[in-house]
UniProtKB/TrEMBL annotation:
Broad class of where this protein is predominantly found: membrane
Presence of the UniProt keyword Transport in the record: yes
Localisation per UniProt entry: Cell membrane
Example of a GO cellular component annotation carried by this entry: plasma membrane
ABC transmembrane type-1 domain residues: 73-262
Topology within the bilayer: Multi-pass membrane protein
Organism in which the protein naturally occurs: Gracilibacillus kekensis
GO biological process: transmembrane transport
Protein name per its UniProtKB record: Carbohydrate ABC transporter membrane protein 2, CUT1 family
InterPro entries: MetI-like, MetI-like_sf
């Protein structure tokens, strides 16, 4: 029985390794292509290790060419970080209220909030556009940040973790004179830290990769995010694949850094959620 179990485990490990390599292949090809001269990008069979290296020239053209990549990076970092902080705080606060504060109509309000999750965001674009023009938030980073400051998914996800926090702890703090906001900051928030980190990383990735909202709500080129910049770069250099791959690699570097830093918290959050399930 033991040998059979070990064989199945070994076979599953090999299968998952092969699947992982297949998923990583396009990413590896992108990095490899960004280091090559243009003539070697589309050669067959694929040269995973470049025979002629052209990395310095490719990345220099991306960073010092016609597109101001440093400004695009700053805009994306500014919008993404502020959006992530705001969204995490608002979602965590709403989730705590729905999980630990008893008020009349709480469950009904929560169902209404969940119902909005079924509305495709594209159906709201015209209304959002008109409202933002009315409030003077169109073509501003502030408006872009506010668009993603509330997340039904984040509220629902964090509420499920807050439900696992013992009510006795909350009641003890209440008896000691602590208000709900103090309990939220000092007790509830630290207890769901892995879930907070997981959602923060997801929100960071979603906001950094967002193309739709910047495309519609930004008009000035000096406010463009990295995704709009890559699109403009593609319009100019779309036929030069080595430069396109260098621009794409440059655009995803912050995502890799964030995931590497936060992967431990993400794994803990997934494990904690699995135990609760």
């Amino acid at each position: 029985m033991t040998e059979s179990f070990d064989f199945r485990k070994l076979a599953m490990t090999i299968i998952m390794t092969i699947i992982g390599i297949l998923f990583m292949a396009p990413f590896i090809w992108m990095i490899s292509s960004s280091l090559k001269v243009e003539e070697d990008v589309l050669t067959f069979p694929i040269q995973w290790i470049p025979q002629t290296w052209n990395a310095v020239e490719n990345y220099r053209e991306v960073w010092t060419g016609s597109m101001p990549f440093l400004l695009l990076y700053w805009n994306s970092i500014k919008v993404t970080v502020l959006t992530t902080i705001t969204s995490v705080f608002v979602s965590a606060l709403a989730a705590y209220g729905f999980a630990k504060i008893n008020f009349k109509g709480r469950d009904v309000v929560f169902l209404i909030v969940l119902a909005t999750f079924m509305i495709p965001p594209q159906t709201l674009l015209v209304t959002q556009f008109l409202l933002y023009r009315w409030f003077g938030l169109y073509d501003t980073h502030t408006g872009l940040i506010l668009l993603n400051s509330f997340s039904v998914f984040g509220t629902f996800m964090l509420r499920q973790f807050y439900l696992g926090v013992s009510n006795e702890i909350i009641e003890s703090a209440r008896m000691d004179g602590a208000g709900h906001f103090r309990i939220f900051l000092s007790i509830a928030l630290p207890l769901v830290r892995p879930a907070i980190a997981t959602y923060a990383i997801l929100r960071f990735i979603w906001t950094w990769n967002d193309f739709q909202y910047p495309l519609i709500f930004l008009r000035s080129e000096e406010l463009y995010t990295i995704q709009l910049g890559v699109q403009s770069f593609a319009d100019e250099h779309g036929s030069i694949y080595s430069l396109m791959m260098a621009a794409s690699v440059s655009a995803i570097i912050p995502l890799l850094i964030i995931f590497i830093i936060g992967q431990k918290q993400v794994i803990e959050g997934i494990q904690l959620g699995g135990v609760k399930g």
